[in-house]
What we know:
434 Repressor (Amino-terminal Domain); Rossmann fold; 3 domains; six-stranded parallel beta sheet; 45% helix; 16% strand
Amino acid sequence: MTSVRNRSTGRPTLDQVASLAGVGRGTVSRVVNGSEQVSVRARQAVEQAIAELGYVPNRAARALVTQRTDSIALVVPEPGERFFTEPFFGRIVQAISAALAGSELQMLLMIAQSPDERRRLDGYLSRQHVDGALLLSLHGSDDALPERLEERGVAAVRVGRPAHPGPACYVDADNRGGAQKAASYLVEQGRKRIATITGPLDMAVGLDRLGGYRDVVKSGPVAVADFSEESGAAAMRWLLEHYPDVDAVFAASDPMAAGALRVIKESGRRVPHDVAVVGFDDSFIARHTDPHLTTVYQPVEAMGKELVRLLLAKLAGESPDRQQVVLDTHLVVRDSA
């Protein structure tokens, strides 16, 4: 057994594994590619030889046999600056990575904002460089991407429901219900002039959180923003200028709520005495604002598990029991309201 290894000091080959295990090359290939058509004795001999030689399968050659790349893409059509500064993105990446830990799949992060970047991304995904894709933060113009990928044999699952009804496979939080809880709580606290700062309205998440607010507050002031802290600050300045009697604000993300808090305090108003503030996410930001932020909890870790479960089922050729998963949200009360 030692003599086989000593013949080469380079990377161990499939033939060396076969020679050391005393089996044919085809048997080694079947073991490496997970085939069940191998006897227990032969499998054990091959696995022992692989361990002794330190053999690592050639992924490109393996892909030719299995028609699989063992990789998936996490696609984010957002600017890099936003991706790396807003806490939701980091949390969902961590949740997906944790859910993939028990699989053989590698995750590729693909950020694309400009039209040229999106065209290159579309081409890369369509040429079967990955087995599947998780699509995060799609805006209205990108709604066709999941369907294009499925047509080309790339399994796709969305993070968040599409803006338009359809057969898409997705995992989402109950954004509308969470916004209803936030607005209802402010009404119960006796607030009379409740405004909202929305997310982008070309995304279902922005529409749903606005819709939940409108279910409770029929005619309150609305300022449109983009989920970022600076957009929340700008929206709050606009609200105070045009509606100085505002006594509560529901911001559709924690970063926007943090920006609103800063502007309210700069204006000389007190939180929550003069203006109560509620966010959405229950991110780490909510525990570090002054005062600490009342917010809607979004189950990001559970979302990551469900996303991976659905994608693995599709990659295995199975039909998931539910193609569309919506997870509950709840209000976390802290000092800002």
